Structures are given as structure tokens and as C-alpha cells.
User: Fold this.
Amino acid sequence: MSGPAKRPKRRLRNRLMLAFAGFALSVAALFGLYAVSFMYATEDAFFDSMLEQEAAAQLRRHALDGGWAEPQQAFMRVYPDTQHFPADLLAARESEPWRSEFAGRDGRHYHVKALQPPAPAQGAWLVAEVSRQLVVRPMRDRILQWLGWSALAVVALALLIGAWLARRSTAPLSRLATLVDSMAPNRWPQRIAAGFPDDEVGVLARGLDAMTERTQAFIDREQAFTRDASHELRTPLAVIRSAGERLLAEPALSTAGREHLLHLRQSAWQLEQTVTTLLTLAREAPVVLPDAPIALLPVLERVVLEQAVWLDGKPVEVEVEVPADARIDLPQPVLHILLSNLIGNAFAHTESGTVAIGVAGGCLRIANRGHPIPAELRERLHEPFRKREGSAGLGLGLAIVQRLCERYRVDLRLDEEAGAMVVSLALAGAAGPPQGAPGTAGPAEDSAARSD
Assistant:
């Protein structure tokens, strides 16, 4: 069951507010730049206009008497050549001769315009030192401060509007996210779409309603199947086992018949345990582990004898080198199912040679030489109905093994080594393959329950 709903680390509302604030700050900075540039450009255009008027007057005067008059504005002067410029203006113009506006020392600022009378008359230079006539530069700090406070006010307003709009826009989505986060197999929210408007969130809510209805119907069908299967399978198995026990009590029973009946009773009991395990998988019941790891060798020997029918008529040898102290942390029925499928597959797909069953590196290893399996198929063999071409099976054995390993957190690996297929199953206290490896389940969780 899921725990209490947690707030997402990156909330959509906060991101919308930050987007509004960032946009407002960008617009304020852009318009502030435009405003300052406009003021500077207007001021410079004003001085250039004054220079144009004065230059026109000077050229008219020069055309009359060949001389230059005293400028009408006190901040303007006429220089016959650049060598008579003030020192700071001369130095600035020598470094950038193409400019007409120069910054001097001690706050002085110059605008320069060339006077070009008709040839062969000698030209001159009209220079305006406008430091005392500047309007924008003395007010620059105050203008920038005013623009800064205005930008902050715009950002604050954008945050308020963004918060209101984000809250209004994301409230339905947040409610839907809370409902989805609280979903559990035994707690499905009903009629989600009834509380949402007819917009994109409403479409999503209606889709979730349809999905939950289909999922609930599937769960109901699965529960009905597991209930019916539990009844229909357990009853005949119990009858078979009971009949076998009564036949064992017959005094005239031969020794061979008694052995067959013992084998039949053991198989019926094992089948009951298998049905219980498979139904547990279907119901998603809590994982129950034994109090202590069980011995591997007795179960392995019994499974080898049971699966030996796959070797009839084949020149195949079975080598079992498993120490008596080898143990695995699994219930006995689960271990029996795992080994039956893995060893049965190894026997069925080996036509000749040796099937080697041993322990290496803390893992039970089952190796056999059979038909080669392509790498892309080997990585998907655990999927239901997935099998190699020509296989007589249904492709469910490894799928069952994979589900059991995932359920009981057992490390399982399928590899090909030197032309042999090798299945590795981690034993108790052994470090399995790296987490996240293909076809691998992680180690047992601390929360797994143990039987009494």
C-alpha cells in the first residue's frame, strides 16, 4: 500500500512563477536599455544639430570674407587644424580618427565637426566641449536606480500574477496528481473525472477513470480465477493423495507397487505445493521465507530424478557436484519449482554430452550444451511464450522462474560460456550479479517476512 502523498521536488506552479518573473525581468531590462539608449541618442542628436547649424553659419561667413567668426555658443570653438586641439582631445582623436565624439579628461566631452569650404580655401574644425551642457550623464545614476526599482516592481507584480495564474491553472492538475499518488490495488478512486472541468485535465481524468475501471475488472477476473483454481485444483489433488495413502495400507501390495504409490503420493504433495506457490504469485501475497536457509542437495537430487525422463534414450551424463552444506534462502516449494524448470530445460535441450550441476562463486550453476541461442533471444527468454525456434515447450518455464526470482529477490543470470548455456542461481549469503543486470533480480529485501 502506498504511503502518504509526497510533494514533488519540482512543482509546476513554482516553475510557472519563475517563468513569469524571468520574462518580466527580461522585458524590464530590455526596455530599460532602450530607454537609456534613446536618451543618449537624443542628447547626441541635439548637439550634432547645434554643430550643423553653427557649421552652416561659419561656412556662410567664410564665403563672405574668407575668415572664421567667433561661434555663437560659448562652448564651441573653431580650430584651424587638429594640432591646435586640446591635449586630451588630440590624444583621443589620434587613437580613433574616424569618430566625431570623444571623452576627455576630468569629465570633459567633445563633439567635433569638420568645416570644408570650397577649394582652394583651407578647412578648419568646429569643436564643442559639452560637459556643462550634458543632461543625461549627470542623471545617469538616478535613472539607472529608477529603472532598477521599476524592474523590481515589475518582477514583484509578475510574481503575484504568475502565482495567481499558476495556482488557478495547476490546482486541478495538483488534485489529480494527489489522487493518482494515493492509488493502490485495494484503493481505487472512483469517478475521478466528475470533479474536473472539460479541459485537458478533464480528458486525462476521464482516461484514468477508463483505465481504473478496466484494471479493476481485470483484478476481479484474476481473483475469481485464483479462487476457482484453488478449489478446482486442490480438491482432486487431495483425493489422489488420500487414495494413495489408503492403497499403501493394503497388506497384499507388492514392493514395486508400494514404491510407485510412494512416488505418486510425493508427486501429489509436490503438485499441491506448486499450486500454492503459483496462486501466491497470482494473488501478490506477502513473501514468506523460511526461518533458516534450507539444504540444496536433497531437493536437487529429487528434482534430477523427477526430470530424468527427459534423458531417456539420450547419450547424456549428469554430473552433480554440490556440497552437502550448500543452502539457499527460499521456501522448499519455490526452490523445487525453480530447479524443476531449470534442470528440465537443461535435460530437454541437451541431445548428447554432459549436464554439469555444481557450485562456483557462491552460485548454483547448471551448464549444458544444446542448440545455440542468439544473444538477442537469450536476453528475452524470460518473457512468456518466448522460446527458440524448434523448441517443443510453450515458453513458460523461464517466465515462471523469472517471476519467482523477482518475487523472492533471487539473483538469476543466463549466460553462454564456451558454447554452453549456463544458468547461475545465487545461494544463501552469496553476492549475486550487479544490480540492474539483464535478467537479474536484486538481493532479498529486509522487509521480507519469515514463516514461524
